[in-house]
From TrEMBL:
Originating organism: Paramuricea clavata (Red gorgonian)
Pfam families (UniProt xref): DUF5641
Record protein name field: Uncharacterized protein
């Protein structure tokens, strides 16, 4: 019995009492038992709420961290978990995009590439769920390393498409043992195309001390001065 003559209400469901059901969305993986345990944890703070009639400021000391996160910053929580980390993948090779919340809520229906140390049957064994968890962690960190980390430090090399060098192009040949203002001029004899159609290796002819020299150099060791079309 309270001082005003009002009877104390039994704290049967803390989430319902505070009308938090629209704010706190129970994860799909939390069972009924887990939800009951969460309510038991929150019941310890109901006295502060029922006696005052409003949410007491000290109630935050008793709430779990994840509840405070969703109460104080729901928009931030949603924006962070839906933020795409890697580049957009749009193909039919069972690849999926990497999101910030993927580590906590992976899309298991699309994870079909099983590491060698774990078999496909391990995903169905309830007595070895740690293998399932380890598999999901391996997939996440593999995508993190291959898709997200390279975006933190983009390289200027091979970032933009430029026309391939052709025969008879005039270039400047880089020489590590020669000062920059003494790099020799060279002419492209032959351009070698890779399997993807890009030129990465050249045959060059240059003159030094009155003698002609032929070199094979990668395209990164030359600087284009004039194309064959500009020389005509």
């Amino acid at each position: 019995m309270l001082e005003n003559g009002q009877e104390r209400r039994a704290p049967t469901n803390f989430s319902t009492e505070l009308n938090l059901t629209q704010i706190i969305k129970t994860p799909t993986r939390i069972t009924a038992t887990s939800q009951t345990l969460i309510d038991v944890i929150l019941v310890s703070s109901t006295a502060l709420v029922l006696e005052s009639g409003v949410i007491n400021t000290s109630i935050s000391d008793h709430l779990p961290v994840y509840v405070l996160l969703k109460l104080k910053a729901p928009k931030m929580y949603i924006n962070l978990k839906n933020q795409m980390l890697g580049e957009l993948i749009n193909n039919n090779n069972n690849n999926h995009n990497l999101y910030a919340f993927y580590a906590a809520n992976p899309k298991t229906s699309t994870l079909k590439a099983i590491p060698r140390e774990f078999g496909a049957t391990d995903l169905c064994k309830h007595n070895k769920q740690w293998r399932h968890v380890q598999h999901l962690a391996n997939v996440f960190w593999s995508k993190w390393r291959k898709e997200f980390l390279p975006t933190l430090q983009p390289r200027r090399k091979w970032q933009e498409e430029v026309p391939n060098l052709e025969a008879e192009d005039l270039v400047l040949l880089r020489c590590k043992d020669v000062a920059g203002n003494e790099w020799p001029h060279a002419r492209v004899i032959k351009a070698y195309k890779s399997a993807d159609g890009e030129v990465r290796k050249l045959n060059l002819i240059t003159t030094r001390d009155g003698a002609k020299h032929i070199y094979t150099r990668p395209v990164t060791e030359v600087v284009l001065l004039r194309t064959v079309h500009e020389l005509k």
